[in-house]
Write a structure and sequence with these properties.
Length: about 120
Amino acid sequence: MTMPLTSTRISPDWPCQVKTPGSYDWERSAAKWLRELIPARYASYPALIRHPVLLARHAQIQVEQEVRVARTALQTARAELPMLGLPESVIEHTIKMYAAEVLQLQHIARSVRAVSTALARR
């Protein structure tokens, strides 16, 4: 089997929804994926539509903030949720949910960084 003359190495964190950098229409697939990560009201701003690298920056800030929110929710759950009168089983389930969400958001943040870096290099 012959390897192509050019090959693109992408990060293991590269999102499957985004085409490989340099391939046809990859920037459009990146912008579409990034728009899904930000609040809908931002998706229509002309600057974010016209400049995918700016969209990537905003998505990175957004996801980093979501990581902080999920961490805070996780760190305060054990102390604060019992005061809401929730059963212990609900509290435990909620703590597991927050822990899973922190991990998922950290993965998304790495993916956004990979896409941002590729967009900045284009």
